[in-house]
């Protein structure tokens, strides 16, 4: 009987798309080939994390919770590191695959010290991409040091460009595997007019929406001021902010101060995300830095035209074909692009359809899973798993 490849996934940021990404991998890899363990922290979002934990455990994935801090905390980080390292010493793994910045350091160093044969890393946007000056220099230097002990770094197109520009690793270590979504998991939802009434929206309201954590990275102030400019010209427009996070009270105070309480609505976390997309007419992303966010894939799958800050999405968003790309923090330009879409229903429909076609063609879920399987197996291609490579490649 062929020995399975044992993989340990590690994640601290269990409140975002990184956990969705990890859950997809853990639950869809071929379990006749791979045996999977996941270590994560639930400190950021207990409810969201445990929904994913239960999903993984139902798929017979071993999940271990180890508390980890989001920010640098020397004492607590040492405790977390020792727990991870001790687990690696006591259990034999063929691959450790770390996800996001904090786990990227803790798990890679622990795996290197424990002499795990292969170390992978998926940054979900390099931390230095959101920094400037000395902070960018320090965090990019840390990534270079980590890159030296990493076999492969899994990146989207814009992350690959950042890695090359800052010499994080050579091109031979960079694996370009874009995110994808299993849209079969999205449940059918209530009719649009019923959902609008449930949300307190007028039936004829044109809805602009954005989904994400209420954190600095998403630059919600730019979104709010773009909304204010848009509503001044198009009073029928309503803007939704869908998510939870540390900035909620501050953002609500800002909306109230601007007199936009009835026009810019923070919905909080929304579990049935398909219902949000059924109500939205235009999707907007004002993020300051990103990898390849799932929300853009979702919006395009649901045939929504997209206005997004230009963060290297050329493989996903084609200017004036399926969306508009705009400069970061330029709320006036964002409002202008939203206005163009509000005025032109045919343009909204055409962009939405082209976006759906692009996601369906280039960002397939099977390719996402099979590409990871192939990358793992290639490290063992000179041994018992060599015969499995053609099978995996054939399933793409």
């Amino acid at each position: 009987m062929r020995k399975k490849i044992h993989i340990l996934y590690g994640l601290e940021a269990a409140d975002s798309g990184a956990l969705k990404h990890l859950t997809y991998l853990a639950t869809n890899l071929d379990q006749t080939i791979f045996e999977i363990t996941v270590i994560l922290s639930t400190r950021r979002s207990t409810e969201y994390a445990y929904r994913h934990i239960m999903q993984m455990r139902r798929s017979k994935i071993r999940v271990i919770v180890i508390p980890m801090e989001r920010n640098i905390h020397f004492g607590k980080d040492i405790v977390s590191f020792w727990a991870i390292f001790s687990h690696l010493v006591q259990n034999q793994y063929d691959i450790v695959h770390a996800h996001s910045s904090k786990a990227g350091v803790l798990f890679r160093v622990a795996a290197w010290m424990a002499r795990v044969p292969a170390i992978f890393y998926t940054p979900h946007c390099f931390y230095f991409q959101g920094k400037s000056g000395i902070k960018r220099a320090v965090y990019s230097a840390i990534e270079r040091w980590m890159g030296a002990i990493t076999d492969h770094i899994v990146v989207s197109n814009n992350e690959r460009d950042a890695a090359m520009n800052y010499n994080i690793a050579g091109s031979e270590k960079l694996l370009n595997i874009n995110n994808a979504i299993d849209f079969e998991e999205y449940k059918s939802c209530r009719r649009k007019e019923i959902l609008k009434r449930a949300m307190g929206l007028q039936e004829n309201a044109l809805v602009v929406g954005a989904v994400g954590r209420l954190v600095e990275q998403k630059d919600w102030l730019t979104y709010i001021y773009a909304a204010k400019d848009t509503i001044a010209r198009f009073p029928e427009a309503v803007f939704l902010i869908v998510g939870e996070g540390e900035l909620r009270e501050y953002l609500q105070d800002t909306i109230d101060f601007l007199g936009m309480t009835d026009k810019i609505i923070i919905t909080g976390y929304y579990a049935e995300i398909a219902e949000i997309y059924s109500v939205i007419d235009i999707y907007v992303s004002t993020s300051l830095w990103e990898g390849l966010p799932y929300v853009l894939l979702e919006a395009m799958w649901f045939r929504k035209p997209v206005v997004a800050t230009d963060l290297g999405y050329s493989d996903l968003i084609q200017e004036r074909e399926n969306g508009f790309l705009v400069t970061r923090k330029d709320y006036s330009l964002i409002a202008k692009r939203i206005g163009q879409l509000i005025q032109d229903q045919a343009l909204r429909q055409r962009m939405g359809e082209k976006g759906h076609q692009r996601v369906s063609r280039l960002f397939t879920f099977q390719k996402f899973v099979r590409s990871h399987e192939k990358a793992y197996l290639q490290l063992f291609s000179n041994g018992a798993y060599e015969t499995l490579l053609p099978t995996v490649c054939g399933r793409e």
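The two ends are 26 Å apart (CA to CA). The chain has two domains: 5-180+364-394, 184-362.
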